[in-house]
């Protein structure tokens, strides 16, 4: 089975056993949860597409852990006024493992 889900404002193609990194979720590590925003499901030759989501289809997943991404350095500069600012940003991610697709 194959599905396309929406998680954290982004779309991900998933199958059972898939690991993916999404925006940070407020869940504890090893916490199971279900994703109800399923956009498409493919089972063999049957394809179901939602408008925008499918009803009665859910994807069960588990949180593997939380991590932070690589540091991104940003600069602000204005000419002739001695204005310079340097800032850094590290995005937080949640690693999710897909257990099953039902529906």
From TrEMBL:
Return the InterPro entries for the record.
Answer: bL21-like (IPR028909), bL21-like_sf (IPR036164), Ribosomal_bL21 (IPR001787)
Task: Set out the biological process GO terms recorded for this chain's protein.
Answer: translation
Q: Which segments cross the bilayer?
A: none
Extract the coiled-coil ranges from the record: none
GO CC terms for this protein? Answer: cytoplasm; ribonucleoprotein complex; ribosome
Key words, A-Z = Ribonucleoprotein, Ribosomal protein, RNA-binding, rRNA-binding
From which domain of life does this come? Bacteria
| Entry GO MF terms | rRNA binding; structural constituent of ribosome
PANTHER family associated with the record: 50S RIBOSOMAL PROTEIN L21, LARGE RIBOSOMAL SUBUNIT PROTEIN BL21M
Tell me, how does this one assemble? Part of the 50S ribosomal subunit. Contacts protein L20.
This chain's function reads: This protein binds to 23S rRNA in the presence of protein L20.
Q: Which family does it belong to?
A: Belongs to the bacterial ribosomal protein bL21 family.
Any idea what this protein is called?
Answer: Large ribosomal subunit protein bL21
